[in-house]
Specification:
This protein has one domain: Four Helix Bundle (Hemerythrin (Met), subunit A), CATH 1.20.120. The protein contains five helices and no strands.
């Protein structure tokens, strides 16, 4: 992964954190935490940092599961996010950062779609 792409992805995570957190808290604390940690996991996976990806994916997974229980109307997307985060943890644990990053990014997409 190039330095330019790492910087771009880092800026995306910072933007989500700074500007998106208000909307995320309105939708639920666990959803916002799941989104933030899944995005950080994806960025680290793209940088080849499988171990750090797993740490953030596990945290995202815990929050996604809690959010899944809280938001019945968004259940389907959060369920998909949980599936992708489980895959991110599995592949990241095996050192497959690229595959894990893809799953973490899919989790980000589903978490975003779970917001009302």
């Amino acid at each position: 992964m190039t330095t330019r792409k790492l910087i771009k992805n880092s800026l995306i995570v910072i933007t989500l954190t700074v500007f998106g957190i208000g909307a995320c808290y309105a939708a639920g604390h666990h959803s916002s935490q799941a989104l933030e940690h899944a995005a950080v996991a994806a960025t680290h996976g793209e940088a080849g940092h499988a171990k750090v990806l797993v740490e953030h994916a596990v945290t995202a997974l815990d929050h996604a599961k809690a959010s899944e229980k809280e938001h019945a109307e968004a259940h389907a997307h959060m369920t998909e996010a949980v599936k992708h985060l489980n895959e991110a943890v599995k592949h990241g644990g095996r050192g497959h950062a690229d595959v894990a990053a893809t799953h973490a990014q899919e989790a980000v997409n589903h978490i975003k779609q779970s917001y009302p």
